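Quick question, first post here. What does this chain look like in 3D?
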Amino acid sequence: MSTYLTPFTPLPSLFDGPAAADDHSSLLAFLMNDDLAAAPDAFPYYGAAEAAPAFFGHAAAPLPPPPAEMTGQGRKRGFVPAGDDGSSRPQAVRRKVQGSPPTSPAHSGGDAAPAARSGGRRVWVRERSTEWWDRLSCPACPDAEFRQAFRMSRATFDALCDELSAAVAKEDTALRAAIPVHQRVAVCLWRLATGEPLREVSRRFGLGISTCHNIVLQVCAALTAVLLPKAVRWPLESPASRFQAMSGIPGVVGSVYTDHIPIGPPKDNVAEYYNRRLTERNNKASYSVAVQAVVDADGAFTDVCIGLPGSLSDAAVLERSALHARCETGMLGDDQCRLVGGASYPLTDWMLVPYAHQNLTWAQHAFNERIAAAHAAAQGAFQRLKGRWRCLQRRTEPKLPDLHNMIGACCVLHNFCERSGEELDADIQSELSQQDDAGVVAAANPVLSAEADKERDRIAHDLLHGGHPSVTFL
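> Answer (accepted):
Ran it through. Tokens below.
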């Protein structure tokens, strides 16, 4: 049995011959959406009167120009009708043409070719509103509103910008002008003051989210590198007289306090940053970094230690800090110079702490009240620090080096405000009055020096009896 095969007539090639372009255009028009096929220039990546890209290795036929008005699904996609120049663009997008070389009339048939056809670079920029920042930056803006937004007066803000100008200023580029120093500093201050997400910062200042993030990191790094050595320093004059007027205890040059800043779970050494006290308070696993500071009688920081793990006790943080080594070598000055700490710190030759046992005598009870008065300067300073810069109250997610710069920047800004006489707003004052003390640790540390214990008893006796020696009755 034989089989006969009918000769197969090959079909004409879709891409050969003069009709290939027409078939190709028909295929594209069939595959594309009706509105986009009718108005190809509505697609933002191609300008007016441009030919569609060659998907199959050769140039396709030019598509018809867009109509004067667009209806239907085109408007639903956010496109606006064509303008006088025949172009169409999204509502929230602006096209900026730069670097377009001139075209001679001989090559353009007597008319200048559009910039899009000349091969110039087109930069797409999203238009954002800067009304909020323009209103605050205007000199006519009330100073109370400016202080509420940035936690300082306009004069203090201008002085801060002058200090950071060399480290924060950027140069203009060919694509856009640099963001001014005042706006960059304002972005960082508002972010630190409110703790709002970067999306809200972007909306307020009319900048991109990533731009705001980079500005905050750069300004915080500049505050830590440039102003931290100047703003946080040991006082040139001994503040013992100020503390003595406050508490009656002679020789006190500073008050020590340790607080914790909540953070998210770090990638490395998670157990070291686990904070048991915060976990019990929040009823969920909490992590933190410790911030230890010495505060003078005016409420300004004179020494800070930032970034130790939150699982350490206050005594362990003190032992690992540079302050401990400095005090052990006698860098406080005279032997009569001392620091004041809470019950969580050890009693040493250079630190006075309150009595922690029960059944206190009259002298010991009076001594504890005087210590509490001196230690209140440090507690109040940390309350104002976290009240001004609310980013320290919320759990932060940045990397630990960036977090250290952020906390250091807040300490610098705190000293800037305290030494400039900047007062807190009434609403922040009311919030601080309702906050409980987050840094008190119930466990008391043992006495590390017998001589220090005797000296504390002597000071307690002198405070009760006015410096008169005790009389022993036989």
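The chain has a mean pLDDT of 77.
The first strand starts at residue 93 and ends at 98.
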